[in-house]
Amino acid sequence: MKRSKDFIFILTVVMIFTACTNQPGSKKDTEDTTTPSKERVRTILLNKEEISRSVEYSSTLEAFEEIHLAPASPGKIETIHVEVSDRVRKGDLVITMDDAQLIQSKIQLNNLEVEKSRLEELSKTGSIAQQQIDQLNTQYESVRENVEFLAENIHLIAPFNGIVSGRYFESGEIYSGTPTTAAGKAAIVTIIQIDKLKTIASISEKYFPNIRKGMEATIKVDVYPDLEFTGKVLRVHPTINPQTRTFDVEILIDNPSDRLRPGMFVRVILDIDKTEVLILPSIAILKMQGSNVRYLFVAENNKAKRIEVTTGKRFDDKVEVISDELNIGDAVIVSGQARLLDGMEITVVQ
What we know:
Elements: H1 2-21, H2 27-32, E1 39-45, E2 47-69, E3 75-80, E4 87-88, E5 93-97, H3 100-124, H4 130-152, E6 155-157, E7 162-167, E8 174-175, E9 189-204, E10 216-221, E11 224-236, E12 246-254, E13 265-281, E14 286-287, E15 294-300, E16 303-315, E17 318-322, E18 331-335, E19 346-348
Parallel strand pairs: 1-19
Antiparallel strand pairs: 1-18, 2-9, 2-13, 3-5, 3-8, 4-7, 5-6, 7-9, 9-12, 10-11, 10-13, 11-12, 13-17, 14-15, 15-16, 16-17
Helix pairs in contact: 3-4
C-alpha cells in the first residue's frame, strides 16, 4: 500500500513539471522563437592602383668580356706568368714567348740596313741599277714588318682588368695553334671580366615594341634568394628568331662585389608597361576546397554577395583581382568572410 502511494506521488510531480515547462512563455519556447544573429564583418572599398606589368625569363650569366690569349703564330712558350683564378690588370704581362725567331729577324734586318745604305751610296754615282735598289727596299720592308709582328707576339699582355679562368699549357711547351678551349678556340690562357657581367634573355616577339636600350631589369639569383640585383638593357637584337618567335636582349649587370659569377642561373624581370588594376588584400580572397575556384564576398544591402574572381599579379600582401562583376567602390568583405554563404545577412562593423 505504501509503495502505491509513493508511485502516485512521483507520477504527479512529473506531470506537474512537464506541464510547467510546456507553458507559453517558458524558457524553451523563448529559445525556439529567437531571431538568428547576423554575422559581423569588416569591409574595405575596392579601388584601382597603378602597377607595372612585368615579364620574367630564365637565363645564364656570362662574362662581360672574354679573351683567349695566344700569339699569332705557333712557337715555344718561354713563361706563363699567371695561374687560374689570378687577377690581372690591364697592361700586365701574362705570357712571354721564346724570342729566338725575333732575334734572328732583327739580325737579318740589321744586315739589310747596312746593304741598303751601301746601295744608296752606289746609286749616287750611277754604278748600280735602280731595279736592284727597289728589290732591296722591298725585302727590307718585309723583314721590318716581320720584326714588328714578332715583337708584338713575344710579350702578351692583359687587355682589360679581369681574372684568369683557364690555363692550357705549361712554361716551356710548344704552342701549336690547335683549339684548346671549350669554345673551340686556340689559347694559352683565358681571361674574363667579371666586375660587370651580362646575360642574354630570349624575349617573346609580342614585347618587341616595349623593350628599349637603357631600361632597367631586376635580376634574381637562386644562390642569393634574399637579394635582388639591378641590370640595364645593353643591346636589343634587331631580328626575330622564326623558330622560337623570340628576340635576344643583352642585359648588363654591375658586379663590383664579385658576388655574381659567369654560369649562374638567373631570372630576368622586365617591367613592360604601367596600368591600373583592381587591388585587394590577399586575405579577402577565398578558395573553394578541392578546386581552383577563387571567390570573395561583397556587402550589398546588408547581405553577403558571393563573386567569383581570377587573381593576377601579387604585391606582397595584396593581389590583383579580375572580375566583370566587381566595380570601383564595392564594399569587399575582408574579415569574417570565411563563415559566410551567398545571400546571408550581415552586420558591417567599422
